[in-house]
Amino acid sequence: MSAKIIDGKKIAAEVLAEVERDVRRLKEERGIQPGLAVVLVGENPASRVYVRNKTQACERAGIFSQQYNLPAGTSEAEVLELIDTLNHQENIHGILIQSPLPEPLDEDSIFNAVDPRKDVDGFHPVNLGKLALGDPTGFVACTPAGVVELLRRAGIETAGKHVVVLGRSRIVGKPMALLMLLKGKFADATVTICHSKSRDLPRITRQADILIAAIGRPRMVQADMVKEGVVVIDVGINREETAGEKSKLAGDVDFEAVAAKASAITPVPGGVGPMTIAMLMSNTLKAARALLKKSAATPARAGL
Ligand code: NDP
Questions:
Q1: pTM above 0.90, yes or no
Q2: Which of 118, 126, 135, 210 gives a 20 to 30 Å CA spacing to 109?
């Protein structure tokens, strides 16, 4: 079988163009420009690249962005103070704290401090809870939201299919599985979640109609782990260093071998990665619109 390559770059460009159009309308009709604050702590080179890509995407989409670069030694109290300021800043609708945070900062308490209405990364317990309940007013983590958008725009139905998700992180695996479990189109799947303690992984992955790999292990998914005709979504981004050569990106899936059996597959790079940024822009627009709805619903308090 020769697999259809799901082009994440092209689909992300479509999403970004739609966001850019809607941001322009919001500015023209309501005088509001969505704003995103991006907080980077420390010097992690990959994080710096991600942050740069995100602020560049903001520029393209017409979203105002403000970047905060804090040194690695910044205390938790200082990060929390900045988050509190941003939570109250009117021109900021979304707050992104670039993960991973350097030790000894506690990611959970920092993510939890972001106002859930500005949590465009979808990591706050309120938003994870809303996702679990199928409440569409919450924010869904950008990477899994991007995977659903890829499936939708590539015309890959999920209803009734067996979706196997490899990985159970707060950022990818868990919200991914919850999305596939929701009722509705491009959901309604039968879902299995695997992790490092799962026994006999190949036996489970071979049952997948759709396999979503988010484990952070380069090329771990091999051809003998999938069935003919499977759809494979590779979330993994692993940097491989080879002596004397520039480092290369590899997914969690052995692309060449698995593509020979799959009906459709995402490449790395150029698959899920660009979708994550596009969904961040889309979530920031959603946050700005939600604020408008809220102010329209608040009765005038003139004279009080
Ligand atoms: P985490 O390290 O937080 O989670 C990895 C998950 O994989 C864990 O649940 C872990 O199990 C499981 N796992 C690890 N090894 C195995 C194994 N041998 N067999 C089965 N399960 C295993 O990673 P993330 O979820 O943050 O990221 C996963 C990958 O996705 C990474 O490559 C990351 O770079 C990439 N990524 C890509 C993004 C994009 O934009 N494309 C965005 C975010 C992440 P356990 O829970 O038991 O430890």
A1: yes
A2: 135
Whether residue 224 lies in the annotated active site: no
In the block, residue with structure tokens 């380069």: 218
Give tens-digit pLDDT for 17-70. Answer: 999 999 999 999 999 999 999 999 999 998 999 999 999 999 999 999 999 999
| Cα-to-centroid distance, 250 and ligand 1 (Å) | 13
Quote the CATH superfamily of domain 29-118: Leucine Dehydrogenase, chain A, domain 1 (3.40.50.10860)
Task: Domain ranges for the chain, please list them.
Answer: 29-118, 142-274
Average of pLDDT values for 189-212? 98
Tell me the C-alpha to C-alpha distance, in Å, between residue 251 and each of 2, 68, 107, 206.
Answer: 19, 30, 25, 19
Which pLDDT belongs to residue 127?
98
* Topology match between the domains 29-118 and 142-274: yes
**Cα–ligand 1 centroid distance for 214 (angstroms):** 5
**Angstrom distance (rounded) from CA 271 to CA 251:** 10
106 is catalytic: no
In this prediction, residue 1 has a pLDDT band, given cuts at 50, 70 and 90, of low
Looking at domain 142-274, its CATH architecture is: 3-Layer(aba) Sandwich (3.40)
Q: Coil, strand or helix: which one is 221?
A: strand
pLDDT at residue 84 in the model: 98
Ligand 1 pocket at CB < 6 A = 143, 166-169, 171-173, 194-198, 201, 214-217, 235-238, 272-273, 276
Q: How many residues does the chain have?
A: 304
